[in-house]
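Posting for a labmate who doesn't have an account.
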Amino acid sequence: MERIELKCLKCGDVIWSLYPGHMRWCSCSAIAIDQDEYMSRFIGRKEDMEVVSNDK
């Protein structure tokens, strides 16, 4: 599974999902990531997040 890391541009947290069904929020709750075996879902405004890692 691909690991995607998101950075919150409001609080600076870097978040990622560890396994399918594991949803993570940043500490200020502006963004979140949820992953399953087929796709990743980003929650929040595009302006508040940045993809910082997309390792395979």
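Reply:
Got it, the structure tokens are right above this. Residues 3-55 form one domain.
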